[in-house]
Amino acid sequence: MWQSPQEPHAIDELVVDDFVIVTGGEAIRGRDAFREWVLKFQSTVEDLEFIPVETFQNEDGSRVASLWEMTGRNRGFMGTEPDGQPIHLTGTAVWNVRADGMLESNRVERNAWELHRRLTA
Q1: What secondary structure does DSSP assign to 92-109, as a single string?
Q2: 34, 29, 27: which is closest to 12 by C-alpha?
Q3: Which terminus of the chain is less hemmed in, N or C, by CB atoms within 10 Å?
Q4: What average pLDDT does this structure show over 102-115?
Q5: Where in the sequence is the domain holding 109, given as residue range(s)?
Q6: Better pLDDT: 4 or 49
Q7: Where are the beta strands (DSSP E) in the chain?
Q8: Are 45 and 87 in contact (CB under 8 A)?
């Protein structure tokens, strides 16, 4: 859903109905709410590219952590003026994964404050 070509409707095949993502301290609950959040997020970044930097998991694969980068051009990201400025976002995600591979939850932290300051400078 994040790597090109983005396919946010793959969420239906990847996450459980009661999926929870905590992003920047805010909990988004449920598959439909997550899909809506992804679509809104993606609409604010032109030419979005998602780059996995490093991924690792515990022994049984129930916990997966990744370091990632995202690039693109500003199309109103974080409520800013859609001015085409370059976007470079870095982050960390920690996933809970069921035995069948479905994603149960995700916690994401990213350099949003630093990026927002740069976009509004």
Answers
A1: EEEEEE-TTS-EEEEEEE
A2: 34
A3: C
A4: 93
A5: 8-120
A6: 49
A7: 15-23, 26-29, 45-57, 63-74, 86-97, 103-110
A8: yes
Under a CB-based contact definition with an 8 Å cutoff, are residues 90 and 68 in contact? yes
CATH number where 110 lies: 3.10.450.50
pTM: 0.85
Q: How many domains does the chain have?
A: 1
Q: What value does the mean pLDDT take over residues 65-82? A: 96
Rounded to 5 degrees, φ, ψ at 81 are -65, 130
Give the Cα separation of 8 and 44 in Å (integer): 14
Compute the distance between CA of residue 65 and CA of residue 54 in angstroms, rounded to an integer: 8
